[in-house]
Hints:
The complex is a heterodimer of chains A (388) and B (258). By secondary structure, chain A is an all-alpha fold.
Amino acid sequence: MAGNELRVTSSKNSIFKARPILVALWFSILFLPFKGAKAALILFVVLSTSIVLSRSLLSYAKSLREKGQAVSNRIRTIKLSTRSLFVARYSLLLILIALPFFVRDYLLDIAILTGIYIILALGLNVVVGFTGLLNLGFVAFYAIGAYTYALLNTALGIGFWPSLPLSVGLTALSGFVLAVPALRLRGDYLAIVTLGFGEIVRLVLNNWDSLTKGPNGISGIEPPYLMGISFWRLSNYYYLILIFALLTIVIIKRVYSSRIGRAWIAIREDEIASSAIGINTPMYKLYAFAFGAFWAGLAGALFAGKMQFVSPESFTFMESVLILCMVILGGLGSIPGVILGAIILVILPEVLREFQLYRMLALGSGLVLLMIFRPRGLFGGKSVSLRS
Amino acid sequence: MERKHIKNQSKNKKLPIIDQPLSTDFMLKLENIHTFYGQIEALKGIDIEINRGEIVCLIGSNGAGKSTTLMTISGILRPKVGNIYFEGESINETLSHRIVEMGISQVPEGRRIFQRLTVRENLEMGAFLGRGDFASSLERIYSLFPVLKERERQLGGTLSGGEQQMLAIGRALMSNPKLLLLDEPSLGLAPIMVSKIFKTIKEINHEGTTVLLVEQNARAALKLSDRGYVLENGRITIQGKGEELLNNERVKTAYLGE
């Protein structure tokens, strides 16, 4: 194992050493058509110096870490780290609870959106990260969840809470429906089928005028009420999302470490070996699809309640790609990684808003950079092992 | 543990059709099995019987249908014609995970361990069905393969080929099978490792697990086995006791290189 790690780091080093200039050059060339040669040249200089600088910083940090490891007692570090993790977790929770008292509505709005995307990305992570089935049509489930609540509320006048189980259940059921034909397929073929499913759902929503009002969308959806409290206020809705996001994290974590989660991991690692040890692989794949869809349904209903408006425009293929990016960015299969990925991909475009036109370019190049230096995502790559 | 006398061990291509009533002495019985890959008939009517407590080997050249036979037994492939009985029960239609549950474990060809899980996690996955007591199964595997205990926390992919084979066998044994199917356990291993693995197979058999071994390494496999079958182009052409096959002229020239 040590040898393996050694190899990984040395190959990483070689990338650092050999290619900072190439990386910088590439990004400068990307910029060339937008701002001309001068800006590209400046960018080139800035990028290459910053890469060289970060390289030396990284190696310095590494040497520091090695020194620290040599000094510190192993057992003590483990104890300390669990305690500090505990403290960090609860202080983070406190900060999250206190957030609405400090920040502006704009930031709260972003926080709510982040929460919804965290639920979505964690749901997709079940399918892609845990079970290893590429799903490019995940947004379809999001749409089904959102439209179910929207229709139940506007057409039948059913409130948020009674329609929540209905819309989540219907979404999970649609997960089953997609999974049944998809079970026979693997890899690229599966991806194409899920992509098709996503498009079918969007097109149906777009064209079934009598039910979904087509491209105009459905407006006037009620926000949820609970015991006389309206969640129309942003801060209230923020708490609602916070609770649901925490619930999602806890439940998915529990399921991940259960027997079902282990079966998913086994299927991802080697499907033939999984069936050789007696795992009913089609069944567990079905579970993964339905369970992932379940969370997308929840996120959809919360989204509809927040926006009070749904239209097919919110559920395009790009949305699927965005959610997939969150999962991959954070590290396939890693729950904290996926959460971080969702946070980054919601917040980063907001931060980069000032750059206007260059926003997507910067975001894209950031993603590419990340994939060069951390190809298995922010939190991925150590090992997929369950414990220890 | 009494053994039915195997009648007619002639070298005739045509084998007698066994139409005696089903006997529980046969742990596993394949009756006139025909398996197809699409249009291609890979198995053209195979009869195999395995008694409780035996080591039976299946030898043959590439493409003879050895692996296909194992896949058909473990339910990954379905026979078009014929019957498979396990302990008197027909398992033709049984789903593959149910077959594992009934007590047939397969060590797939090429080992197929979970590379990115640790050795211990691999073994834990082997106990997925929860057949038997976990702690004692684990203890047993570690005493069979002490090296696995040493490497408990190492990732499966970092083991050597021989160790991976041990891990694959250990993982299959974690479900406490009655019948162990081994698909080419000697594939790509150094001779010393091969003899080590074969010694362990003998040991596993002594502890009461029936073994069906598929091998290209005919000499080693026949020395180890109580009985053997020679498979050629989807048909069983020769069958008999291990040492009989070792002395059989046709086997000698075709598989032992003498």
